[in-house]
């Protein structure tokens, strides 16, 4: 039986896993991510591979970045030593193994479609509400664009409303790290929630504090959540209308706040063309290492296609 190794590459840690089939994916340990030294980065992967005591047929990496499909170069600002590299080719040269590079939100989406909340659905839109906002789109069990990681990136583009909430509050056009202004990413993640609270009330609170106060009925936090849900629900509803997704598993830190997901689900279902009498925006089910699972599933499919 073929064995591949999947990696979840984050800014702070590299996690590995052994995959022999879709139902046989075993996590390995984690090591700190070398951010500035490519040789050290490769050595970390090599050490995790060596821990298995086996020779994999392929390695598959989930990374918080996108690959230019024309040049194959990676855009990954939080790990400078791999940013701008043709990473798959470089790793193949260094490790002597075929390498597959995938966007982390795509890996999340394929994991949820195959083994999580998206099972049984033809079109699955995986949404990330973490530090920022991301997403991936799966149709008939395949990523819509397996090369790159651009499809499903609903977090970027100048789309945020200029007013939101009841009564409407004026929303500034916040600058986004992608270089544009007014992106969903500027308001939809944990840092965005904190930014909204500061704008509305001139208070610096963590997202955890804001959510805790909201759940206790505190007036200012309740206002912030009202504005947040209004801002995020419309672009997510538009995304669902365009893609035809029938389920939206949500990952990232804010997905752990189920009352917030319920509010978002209610607002989204009120704004889409197709009506559902069941939850549409739901908590993801692959709670442990969806990046590892998604990368493993993509690697297994690539391996099977090559046979």
UniProtKB/TrEMBL annotation:
It catalyses: N-acetyl-D-glucosamine + ATP = N-acetyl-D-glucosamine 6-phosphate + ADP + H(+). InterPro entries: ATPase_NBD, ROK. It holds the Pfam family ROK. Keywords: ATP-binding, Carbohydrate metabolism, Kinase, Metal-binding, Nucleotide-binding, Transferase, Zinc. It comes from the Bacteria. Its EC number is 2.7.1.59. It is an enzyme of class 2 (transferase). GO terms for molecular function: ATP binding; metal ion binding; N-acetylglucosamine kinase activity. SUPFAM superfamilies: Actin-like ATPase domain. CDD domains: ASKHA_NBD_ROK_NAGK (cd24057). This is N-acetylglucosamine kinase.
């Amino acid at each position: 039986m073929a064995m591949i190794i999947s990696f979840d590459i984050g800014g702070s840690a590299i996690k590995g896993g052994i995959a022999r089939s879709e139902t046989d994916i075993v996590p390995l340990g984690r090591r700190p991510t070398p951010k500035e030294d490519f040789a050290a980065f490769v050595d970390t992967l090599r050490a995790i591979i060596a821990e298995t005591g086996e020779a994999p047929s392929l390695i598959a990496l989930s990374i918080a970045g996108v690959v230019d499909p024309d040049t194959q170069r990676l855009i990954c600002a939080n790990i400078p030593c791999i940013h701008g590299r043709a990473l798959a080719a470089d790793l193949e040269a260094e490790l002597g193994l075929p390498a597959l590079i995938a966007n982390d939100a795509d890996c999340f989406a394929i994991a949820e479609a195959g083994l999580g909340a998206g099972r049984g659905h033809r079109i699955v839109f995986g949404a990330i509400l973490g530090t920022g906002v991301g997403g991936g789109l799966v149709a008939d069990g395949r990523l819509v664009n397996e090369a790159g990681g651009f499809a499903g990136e609903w977090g970027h583009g100048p789309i945020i409303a200029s007013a939101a909430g009841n009564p409407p509050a004026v929303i500034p056009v916040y600058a986004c790290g992608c270089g544009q202004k007014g992106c969903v990413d500027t308001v939809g993640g944990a840092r965005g929630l904190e930014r909204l609270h500061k704008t509305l009330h001139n208070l610096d609170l963590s997202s955890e504090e804001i959510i805790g106060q909201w759940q206790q009925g505190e007036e200012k936090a309740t206002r912030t959540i009202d504005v947040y849900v209004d801002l995020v629900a419309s672009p997510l509803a538009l995304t669902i209308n365009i893609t035809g997704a029938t389920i939206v598993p949500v990952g990232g830190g804010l997905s752990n706040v189920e009352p917030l997901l319920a509010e978002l689900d209610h607002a989204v279902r009120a704004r889409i063309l197709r009506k559902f009498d069941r939850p549409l925006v739901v908590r993801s089910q692959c709670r442990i290492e969806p990046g590892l699972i998604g990368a493993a599933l993509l690697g297994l499919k690539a391996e099977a296609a090559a046979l």
